[in-house]
Fold these 3 entries.
Entry 1:
Amino acid sequence: YRRVTIKFTSTSPSPLHIRYTLVSGDNNVFVAAALSGDAGSASQNALYMNAGDYPSDTWTNKDVKISLSAALPEEVEKYQVKVNDAEWADLDSGDYRVTEDGVYNLQFRYVDTDGKESPTQSIIVKRDSAIPDLTVERDGDTLTASAAEGLTGSKIYYRIDGGMWNLYTGALEASQGSIYRFKAVSGTGVESPVQAVVLKADEVQPAF
């Protein structure tokens, strides 16, 4: 971690509220926080949010861990999270994990020992780890494949014998004696088990 110092002054008698974001070289937001106070003596109640290498509002097939901390941790009574349109809920610690598939609009805050709430920080997490459900059917020498659409959709690929994988765009007229292999890939890169069809047999066989 790198320590960052922010200095500000103002002649306004009104309270100040400054929001700031620190961005890494690959455009990942790794700290979002806020400072508030008056011009004479600024009090710091910053909430820091660290989502590691996960960029907000992008799809992933992995768990997302969000770590929270405060500029003055000794004043934190509890951290809280608001998930989508639900009510604010207390957290057991400053760590929060997204482990289930879905789209989550997350807001975080803490309540200090005086019952005051910090500025909120937010992040959108999108997770899809589902394995595409691939179906391959044979009608004579015609092969068709389909895959159930998940949260991020899917694409189907095929290859003949030991050749390269090709994008499947429609029914294939297969050649006798060849082995056709199919797989589906979700929008987050999760692959289905490969299915193989041997044209000299009347059944879809496991990949080999």
Note: The CA atoms of residues 141 and 174 lie 5 Å apart.
Entry 2:
Amino acid sequence: NESLNPNFVKAWSGALFVATWQDLNSYHQSSSARSFEVLELPWGANPDKFRPPGESGRARQDHVVAVSTFHDHESMEELLLAAAHTNVRVRHIGAETAKFCNCTSIWSSHQACTPRASLGGKAACSWHDALGRLSDAALVQELQTAKWASALRKFEGFEMVGIEALFCGARPLVYDLPSYRWYSKNALVVSSLLVPGQFFSEVTEYFK
């Protein structure tokens, strides 16, 4: 939107190459400055690595793969609460320092770590598997056996994991933000304006 980004065209017009999440084609058409051309290339994953499992592959499980580091920005707590109430495990890939929690009691600061009667006295984080860093081969195996992959970022984001998930046959979950619109019907789209209770209802419906 040119009104929101008044200096973008000036910066782009003097560049040799631009890498951005912005939709340059639509922006260019609405701009009065036409001193640069846009080459549109589809983002993708390496199909030699990221592909659906063969006939001998393991069956898909009721779990969702999450690749994340910043839990608040990446909706990990909301995802865990919804997943636990539908008995869906969250397979969390990330650095060891990015563990969601280390708790076994109610003394954690996360709502997902509070025991709940609706979960038989367990906390939602009991459905969380911290896998740490994985090789590409191990990541592919996780995506090939998952039903869903979380690409739920609350603002901006390219979300390579969502694309890799599609290549492996898992369904990405994304917010309805402009940078994710190209997913179209290939993803499960969650409203970015949902309050926690509405998020819970919408995502649990997807997981049923």
Note: Strands lie at 61-67, 89-93, 128-132, 146-150, 171-175, 188-190.
Entry 3:
Amino acid sequence: KDNWVEWEEIIALRNRLEKKYLKAGITIRGIKKLSLVEKKDIFFEYQYYLMLCLHTYIKPVRCEYGEMIVCKNKYFDGLEDDEKERNVYLLNDMRSRKQIIFGKYSRKNPMKKNLIVDLPDKLCKVINIFMDLRNDIYGWRCHDTHPLILKKSKKNLTIYLMSKNGYSKNLGNFFKKHLNKKIGAFMLRTIWTSYYRRGEVSLKEKLE
């Protein structure tokens, strides 16, 4: 209970950070004016904001985004079914339209089939800004097979995928910093579920 917040507080945090980055010029056009040093300074901070957006613009999941791969549709179509079913992919052919595909075995509870999620415009824009920063800093291409979320090393190099445990720890640190609450991916899902089930008849009442 000490770490509980309402979903409205989570969205309010996202809105505050959105205004902060707009004011700082962290936009598609604005980041082109930043020096390489300035881009490096903001990169991992903006990654936390991206993580928040991934969990709030669409239905929150656990920590699967930590191992999500960015790729083109053509690359995804050429994968074996086993790879498609075990992993999570961000299809990034277009800047204005993107999809996340959760393989049916990529989540803790297996699904009957792969889950395809169309991303809203605002989330696409946040991803575009983040990837533009990433590409400028590390020289990566927009349509590659690198991870989206990156692991920060002591030398500020990003070589490996962030593990699910690492993702969970980073998400928890983010909420501790901004809300002074210990909120992980599981609790965030619980907060979301509570918000969207307000007004429903409880299970106890249904059984009576």
Note: The first strand starts at residue 69 and ends at 71.
